[in-house]
Write a structure and sequence with these properties.
This protein is an alpha/beta fold. About 35% of the residues lie in helices and about 15% in strands. The chain has helices at about 110, 120-130, 145-155, 195-205, 210-230, 245-260, 280-285, 315-330, 340-355, 365-380, 420-430; strands at about 5, 15-20, 30, 45-50, 90, 100-105, 135-140, 160-165, 180-185, 205-210, 235-240, 270-275, 330-335, 390, 410. It binds zinc ion.
C-alpha cells in the first residue's frame, strides 16, 4: 500500500483512497498537506479519488452526504454547520420569461449558515484544517468566502486573518467572529489584496489557505447533488466572480464519469453570468482566449459598483480552469447590466416571496443577476422550450442581520508592514 494514499473511513460501503497529484509532472503528494502547488515543478495540483464508489449518498442532510468523494480522511473531522444539501425549488410561472424553459432554483442561499453557497467551501476547507491541525489561517475575498471561513474558524476556535476590500465592508453581516478572528479592510485596488495577504502569511509564518484545487472539490458537491436530485438537467447556471462554482461543478461530473455513474453527454451545459461592470472573463472568453493576463483587467473600477462581490480578486488565476469548464461542457458565458437586472427582478422576487423565500438584496444581488442573464439568453435563443435549467442561488438569503461586524483595522497595502500589522492585531486579541 502506498502511504501517500489515504483510505477514507467510508460510511456508505465504498472503498476510496485519495491523494494529490501534479497536473503537469504527475508527481504524487500525500493528501495530508495543504499545499498551493507542485513542490517539484510548481504546476497546479489536483485531488485524485480511486477505488469503488456506488454513487449513493449517505442520509446526512448537508454536503457531507457525499463524504466519500471529498478530501477528508476521517468523518469525525467534519465541521458541517448545515452547509449544502440544499433543496431544489421549481418556479414554473417564470417559464414565460425564459422562452418556455423550466426554471429550478437550488437554495443554497436559504440553507447555508452565512446565507451563500460559499459555506460549502468553508465547511470543506475548515474541516481540512481541523484534520491537518492547521491554525493561524490567512485568506482574502471580496466578502462572502471570507465571511464563511471566519464563521467556521470561529466555530473551531482557530485564529484567522481575513483581508477584504474596504468597499465591501457593508457586507459584513450575518456571521460569527470570535476574538481571534481578525478582519482587515484593504484600501486599494482589488487585485492588490491577494498578493498582500500571501506576503502577510509568509512574513508572519502563518498558513495561507486555500489552493484552488482544494476549493474546487467543495463545489464538486453541487454536481453530486444535481446528479442525485435532478439528473435530467440541461443547464447549470451560476452568477460568477471568478467561477469557482462552475469549475467545481465540472470537476464533480468528471468524477461521476470516472466512476462509471454517468456518460459525458449527461453533463449539463454550464452557463456563467457576469455583472457587466466586472465582466473580464466574459470578454476574454468571447475573444477566444484560454488564458488571461493582468492586462485583461480594467485599470480601475467605478467607486459605486453595482455588485462589488462579483469583482473577483483573482480572475487571472482562475480563468484557465473556467475556460476549460465552459469548453468541455459546451457552456455559455454572458453578462448583464444594472438596468436589465432592475427590469427582470420584480417577477423573480415575487415568485419567491409567494413561497416564503426572501433574498437580502440590499446585501447582494448576484442571484438576480443570474436570472436576468437567463432572460437575456432566452431572448437570444440560447435556451428555450423544454430546457430544464438549474440556477444556483448564490446569495444572499438566510438570517436577516443588518448589524455590521466591525473590522479590526484598515490598511494601505502599499505602506503597511505585514509584521507590524500582525503585531497590532495581536494586541487587540489580548486586550
Ligand atoms: Zn509537478
Amino acid at each position: 500500500m502506498d502511504a501517500r494514499k489515504l483510505r477514507k473511513t467510508s460510511e456508505g460501503g465504498n472503498a476510496i483512497e485519495f491523494y494529490q497529484r501534479c497536473t503537469k509532472c504527475e508527481a504524487i503528494e500525500s493528501a495530508h498537506r495543504m499545499i498551493a502547488a507542485c513542490p517539484d515543478c510548481a504546476a497546479p495540483l489536483e485531488f485524485v479519488f480511486e477505488g469503488t464508489y456506488s454513487g449513493a449518498p449517505s442520509d446526512r442532510d448537508d454536503l457531507w452526504k457525499n463524504f466519500d468523494l471529498l478530501p477528508l480522511e476521517d468523518s469525525r473531522n467534519i465541521v458541517a454547520l448545515g452547509a449544502g444539501g440544499s433543496p431544489i425549488l421549481e418556479l414554473p410561472e417564470l417559464g414565460d420569461a425564459l422562452g418556455g424553459a423550466d426554471l429550478f432554483l437550488k437554495l443554497d442561499s436559504d440553507k447555508n449558515p452565512t446565507g451563500t453557497f460559499k459555506d460549502r467551501e468553508a465547511s470543506v476547507i475548515l474541516s481540512r484544517c481541523k484534520e491537518l491541525g492547521l491554525d493561524g489561517l490567512v485568506f482574502y475575498s471580496t466578502a462572502n468566502t471570507g465571511r464563511a471561513y471566519t464563521h467556521y474558524a470561529a466555530e473551531l476556535g482557530l485564529t484567522s486573518y481575513f483581508f477584504m476590500p474596504k468597499q465591501c465592508e457593508y457586507k459584513n453581516t450575518g456571521f460569527q467572529k470570535g476574538p481571534r478572528n481578525h478582519l482587515i479592510l484593504v484600501d486599494s485596488h482589488y487585485p492588490n489584496i491577494g498578493p498582500y495577504a500571501k506576503r502577510f502569511a509568509k512574513e508572519n509564518g502563518l498558513h495561507a489557505i486555500a489552493p484552488l484545487h482544494e476549493r474546487t472539490e467543495s463545489y464538486a458537491t453541487l454536481a453530486y447533488e444535481q446528479f442525485q436530485e435532478m439528473p435530467d438537467c440541461d443547464f447549470f447556471v451560476q452568477t460568477i466572480a471568478s467561477g469557482m462554482g462552475p469549475i467545481g461543478f465540472l470537476r464533480g461530473h468528471r468524477n461521476l464519469i470516472k466512476f462509471g455513474l454517468e456518460e459525458r453527454r449527461d453533463v449539463p451545459r454550464i452557463v456563467c453570468v457576469q455583472s457587466e461592470q466586472t465582466n473580464s472573463m466574459y470578454v476574454a472568453y468571447r475573444a477566444g482566449k484560454t488564458e488571461m493576463t493582468p492586462d485583461d483587467l480594467p485599470s480601475e473600477f467605478p467607486d459605486d459598483l453595482f455588485e462589488p462581490t462579483l469583482n473577483s480578486t483573482n480572475p487571472v488565476h482562475n480563468y484557465p480552469a473556467l475556460c476549460a469548464s465552459l469548453r468541455e461542457s459546451d457552456g455559455i458565458i454572458t453578462d448583464v447590466g444594472r438596468a436589465a437586472v432592475g427590469q427582470e427582478s420584480g417577477r423573480f422576487l415575487k415568485a419567491l416571496a409567494k413561497r416564503g423565500i426572501r433574498f437580502l438584496v440590499d446585501q447582494e444581488q448576484s442571484t438576480l443577476i443570474g436570472f436576468a442573464g437567463l432572460v437575456r439568453l432566452a431572448a437570444e435563443g440560447s435556451i428555450g422550450r423544454g430546457d430544464r435549467v438549474l440556477l444556483l442561488a448564490t446569495g444572499r438569503g438566510g438570517t436577516e442581520s443588518s448589524e455590521i461586524v466591525p473590522a479590526d483595522l484598515t490598511i494601505d497595502p502599499s505602506t503597511a508592514d505585514p509584521v507590524e500589522v500582525k503585531r497590532r492585531l495581536d494586541v487587540l486579541t489580548n486586550e
